[in-house]
Amino acid sequence: MSLPQLLWKAVGEDPLRLVEAGIFLLAILHTFLAPFFHRLGSRRLERARRLEPRQAPQAAKDQVAAELLLLLGEVEVVFGLWVIPLFWILVGVKGWAGAIQQLGLHRDFAEAIFVVAVMTVASSRPILLFLDRLLQRVAALGRESVAAWWFSLLTLGALAGSLVTEPGAMTVTALLLGKRFFALGPRPALSYATIGLLFANVSIGGSLTNFAAPPVVMAARAWGWGSGYMFVHFGAKAALATVLGSLVYLGVFRKEFARLEALRRRGKIDEAAGERLSPWITGAHFVFLAWIVATADIPVLCVGGLLFFLGFLHVTSPFQDEISLRQAVLVGFFLAGLEILGSLQTWWISPLLERLSETSLLFSASAISAFNDNALVTYLASLVPGLEESSKRAVMAGAIASGGLTVIANAPNPAGQALLSRFFPDGVSPIGLAAGALVPTAIALVLLRP
Fold first, then answer.
1. Does residue 60 fall inside a structural domain?
2. Could you tell me if 72 and 155 lie in one domain?
3. How many CB atoms sit inside 10 A of residue 283's CB?
4. Is residue 3 part of a domain?
């Protein structure tokens, strides 16, 4: 059968598939409208605060409406929110047990739990300070200028994802970019170029090994790809792509970097000079990080490691900064919702992949990954029987190359957006993000192409 015939047959077998796909598309549309809701909510909240005391009832109503709009403007809650109406539609059609089975709510949500745990540990003060000092030595080659820090973070920071996992690299790099770069107030064009490059580089930067990037983990085991295979076919090219993409933007925005460097020299950034921590505390944090990475596929052990880590934070509180779990939990909620809705799209994604040539697979996987978690794309490809080796590499290349185009394209992106959104007054614009990631995505597609 042709693809349209096959899809029509699938819909005929279960008309609810159209409802599931429709809600998935509405959730994607919602991610693009999130900045609009955020702006409306901010204005409504400001208006409520300006009301006089005698208008307290109206102020309370405005504040509730504003908080609702702000909630709708949080990208991290989008997919989880859209699971709710789908769940109740399925309850009405299939009953309680049928809805739970259809949505796969008995799954362990290992990826979402892992991201919450690794974000919490990787954002701790000892690890940030250790990596800050490590990258400082690299930035010293460029006299620790803003450009040198920026380049070091967006290349070495992103490539570190192959060792500390992509969520860990995204968390650490985003936090250090906030401290060393965004705190200086770059203009919007460079801000969007930076966050787009960050997402794109982290997406390909985890491909030097077979255990650090979600889309690689989803398929490497089924296809028998070890770390050596990944480095030869993807890793070396990915490293070159991160350097080239960063160099291109470094050249395009050289005047803006000069302006930021002048601000840095006038003392507009906190260098945190002389800040030190005991080596044993830093070592303990890396042990916790290693445990969480090693138990990523076993949620009960991963959560256990996180709980012991939180206890360790309390015991060593004089040497720690207070850690908020809010951002990490929101990102986990985002990924869990995306996993639920995305897994229901197999009926149209899988047959599409089966019918494409190698070149078509590359660009189709890239396009699909931009509007779906790229880990889901590679996972679905791993289920296709008889896929040629070159076709497998094309799917992987397309999936990781386009991981920076949208916030939903790669699992760590919501973490990066949550950590850097405060530097974007109206929230991170999806169009601005896509524009910023376009050049590094094109470079990655050219270099990673089989």
1. yes
2. no
3. 12
4. no
pLDDT given for residue 273 in this prediction? 45
Domain match, 201 and 72 both: no
**431 and 288, same domain (yes or no):** yes
- Asked if the structure places residue 127 within a domain, the reply is yes
Q: What is the pLDDT of residue 105?
A: 93
Distances in whole angstroms, Cα of residue 262 to Cα of each of 51, 148, 249, 395:
42, 14, 19, 44
Alpha helix positions (H), 298-429:
299-315, 326-343, 346-354, 358-370, 374-382, 389-401, 413-420
Nearest by Cα to 122 from 319, 416, 374: 416
| C-alpha closest to that of 214 among 329, 309, 339 | 339
User: Which of these three, 88, 103, 118, is where a domain ends?
Assistant: 103
Same domain membership, residue 426 and residue 387:
yes
- CA 364 and chain centroid, separation: 20
State the DSSP string of 53-76.
GGGHHHHHHHHHHHHHHHHHT-GG
pLDDT at 73: 84
Number of domains in the chain: 2
In a domain, 411, yes or no: yes
Cα-based torsion angle of the residue sequence 304, 308, 310, 312 in order, rounded to the nearest 10 degrees:
-170
Which three-class secondary structure state does DSSP give residue 414? helix
In angstroms, the CA 174 to CA 162 distance is: 16
Regarding whether 179 and 55 lie in a shared domain, the answer is: no
Domain that holds residue 88: 14-103
Rounded to whole angstroms, the Cα distance separating 122 from 143 reads 27
Cα–Cα distance, 208 to 67 (Å, whole number): 43
Residues 299 and 362 in one domain: yes
96-119 in b/e burial notation, b at 16+ Cβ within 10 A?
Answer: eeebeebbeeeeebebbbbbbbbb
The answer, yes or no, to whether residue 336 has pLDDT greater than 60, is yes
Q: Where do runs of H (alpha helix) occur along 165-235?
A: 166-180, 188-205, 214-223, 227-230
Residues 354 and 324 both lie in one domain: yes
Q: Is 297 helix (H, G, I), strand (E, B) or coil?
A: coil
pLDDT at 440: 97
Report the alpha-carbon angle 29-200-184, nearest 5. Answer: 95
> What counts of helices (H) and strands (E) characterise the chain?
24, 0
Residues 365 and 411 in one domain: yes
Report pLDDT digits (tens) over 390-427: 999 999 999 999 999 998 889 889 889 989 999 998 88
